[in-house]
Amino acid sequence: MGSVTQKSEEEAVRGKVREGYAAIAQGGQSSCCSSDASCCSPAGGAALAEQIGYSEEELESLPEGANMGLCCGNPTALASLKPGEVVLDLGSGGGFDVFIAGRKVGPDGRAIGVDMTHEMLQKARTNTAQYRERSGLDNVEFRLGEIEHLPVADNSVDAIISNCVINLSPDKPQVWREIARVLAPGGRVAVTDMALLRPLPEAIREMVESLIGCVAGAVLVEETERMAQEAGLTDIRLTQKPGYVETLIDWRSPLYEKIAEHLPDGASPAEYVTSLEVSARKPGQPCCCGG
């Protein structure tokens, strides 16, 4: 009976996330850091992306509408992608990181995005035509699927990236097991995500806005490390990036202002929440160079 209840709760979480991100894809709702200028900063998603490490050249090369301000770091830089590699993006949205990764892996490589939201997938596939025209490359694809059950073969990708998505999953240990399954021996994972420095008050965890804003589903930093270890990954490195949350607070993000209202007097959201870079490797030696 317990497992049935758990599955029902997990599906309810997926439903909330799917509904929220479908609205974002259709322009009817913004996330905590969306391209809606009123949400984050006067300049919107482009200013946020530059703040967290994307170059002006990378942003200018993107198809129009691919940057929806849904990032909390730059996993493509963390992954140090090489020409000829196969890279997989978990929760690829409108294709933001996939299109950047595609240019890095070049004509002999492949960049694959997986997303469970039909509306996001449609947006990414629409953006692909412009990517091909601008880059001269035909090396990206987008697949419908859940990150807990990746539509990708075992041992088939050189690198996995993800940007502010794993925290949204109701079954994070399963996500890390899937990461380990699809990585080739010697393959690496480089993700940015939201993590907790200390537990959030229950009132915040119950806010749907917090879930869509990548906060309510976040877990403690040490839990992320444990899940990666239990999945069989090694060389795990976790780097806290407090500047992301501090920037959103300075920009008076509506989400973080709401969070502050539910914290003890004088407490800052930056004392509870951080952007986290996670890098790790699957044991073994790559079978060949460049995927």
CATH-defined topology: Rossmann fold
Q: Rg to the nearest angstrom?
A: 18 Å
Order of helices and strands, N to C?
HHHHEHEHEEHEHHHEHHE
CATH homologous superfamily assignment: Vaccinia Virus protein VP39
Biggest sheet descriptor: 7 strands, mixed
Which structural class best describes the helix and strand composition? Answer: alpha/beta
Q: Could you list the spans in which at least 5 consecutive residues all have pLDDT below 50? A: 28-43
- Give the count of structural domains: 1
Query: Could you name the CATH class?
Result: Alpha Beta
- Number of helical runs? 12
Strand content: 15-25%
Strand order, biggest sheet?
3-2-1-4-5-7-6
The CATH architecture can be given as: 3-Layer(aba) Sandwich
Percent helix, as a range, is: 25-40%
Shape: globular
- Give me the count of strands: 7
Report on the structure:
- Mean pLDDT is 83; it is low at 28-43.
- This protein starts with a helix and ends in a 10-residue tail after the last strand.
- It has a seven-stranded mixed sheet, sandwiched between helices.
- Strand 2, helix 6 and strand 3 (140-144) form a beta-alpha-beta unit.
- The chain has twelve helices and seven strands.
- The protein has one domain (2-281): 3-Layer(aba) Sandwich (Rossmann fold), CATH 3.40.50.
- By secondary structure, it is of the alpha/beta class.
- It is globular, with a radius of gyration of 18 Å.
